[in-house]
Amino acid sequence: MLASPDEIAEIQKIRLKSSEKSKMTRDHNGFRKLLIVLTRAGKLFALHTGDGQVVWSRLLHSLRKSEGCDYPNGLNIYQWQIPHHHALDENPSVLVVGRCGCSLDAPGVLSIVDAYTGKELNRLGAVHSVVQVIPLPFTDSTEQRLHLLIDADQHAHLYPRTHEALGIFQREFANIYWYSVEADNGIIRGHVLKDNCILEVADEYCFSTRDLWSIVLPSESEKIVATVTRKSNEVVHTQAKVMAEHDVMYKYVSKNLLFVATVAPKAIGGIGLVTPEESWLIVYLIDTVTGRILHRMTHHGSQGPVHAVFSENWVVYHHFNLKAHRYEMSVIEIYDQSRADNKDVWKLVLGKHNLTSPISSYSRPEVVTKSQSYYFTHTVKNIAVTSTAKGITSKQLLIGTIGDQVLALDKRFLDPRRTVNPTQAEKEEGIIPLTDSLPIIPQSYVTHALKVEGLRGIVTVPAKLESTTLVFTYGVDLFFTRLAPSRTYDSLTEDFSYALLLITIVVLLVAIFVTWILSERKELQEKWR
């Protein structure tokens, strides 16, 4: 008897509920997660990564229209509390930051939401303005992460507003730096904390700030079009990079590096509105603690839009070459030359190396850079990079194309050390022969034949398996998948035949036993001769 369409749909629902992917529990590989998504209207969603179902959704009270907040809108979400020691007693929570209006000096609204249930644990409406949110690398005894919120008057406000958080913050008071970018004015500033705010009503959680340094770019020749920095939680497996001839170079790994791209003011418009002689692209690598410019490079005859991604000690950016009438992708790698003497094994044995010497942003770094540019056929909307738990797996660039698809490109294609005729040692290292353009492999599309309409961003999160990274792409559509840039070298595939493995083991055991009996019998017969 054949099932009716309604019965088939019901059977599929039952299968989906019993599937491992859609369970509402953690798995040992870290694949099952909740995606917390905030819309501009202030509605919060929790999506299950297994099947995309909406676990819960909330229109937050703090982001609803009220007398004190006429035009509320959601800005961003941040990790507020991730309980490790209290995982059985407390759920993870997120901080939702919004604003009552479109201007930067509009009052901000804050809300803390339980990530598992969607319950609004706490909310603060119509507080000070919120221009910048800085998650600090400190947590209190309840594992709540400290955040610094900068308002339009350049005052810094500490959250959570507890005495314990204040004590932790004051101990690290002198070690907190941040930067701000005024793209319209061409100014980049570095800031530090000064002392408590002087207000009509005393607030011990409010601090005044001062400018530590500033870089003013000439407005008649440069216009800031892109800035990007490393992820604060990125893991770098090793600082040393072994070259082809067993030479060692040390990556200049710093969370304080900022990539800035500027173009000629005339080249701000669309492509082709200026001549190559009137257009140029200038890129900077800036230390945000000292304001020191570590590297500066000019691309003559190039213009934006510029899309960039920063990871470890390298940055990749996409731009348009007016002379060649083609898009280009360029890469810059920065290395620490001050550790070049650490190649001597005898210095390591005698303890005369400086590997354990303290590193400070205030010490003048001896850096060397390597760069290269390649033609690229696609217009780009967004660029991201894969991230894994330990940083061992090779990197892939995730490129959001103009066709609303995501292309995965191996970072080895953007190695600045590529040459036309690599040596045998370079081939063994994995260096690909140099070509003028980057390959587009149809099988490398992460989205396959699908499109993410209105693609706006790509987010990558590491799984517990080192080989795997989780990719979430958002726009009008939402897309989620798992990637293994170096294949799943640390796990068995889902279609692996465990039955065949058991049969093989049993056959081997039987063969060993039979062989042993035959050997014993043959040995006995030889003794009787």
UniProtKB/TrEMBL annotation:
Major subcellular location class: endoplasmic reticulum
Membrane-related topology note: Single-pass type I membrane protein
Gene Ontology cellular component terms for the protein in this record: EMC complex
Subunit annotation: Component of the ER membrane protein complex (EMC).
PANTHER family: ER MEMBRANE PROTEIN COMPLEX SUBUNIT 1
Family: Belongs to the EMC1 family.
Protein name (Swiss-Prot/TrEMBL): ER membrane protein complex subunit 1
Organism expressing this protein natively: Camellia sinensis var. sinensis
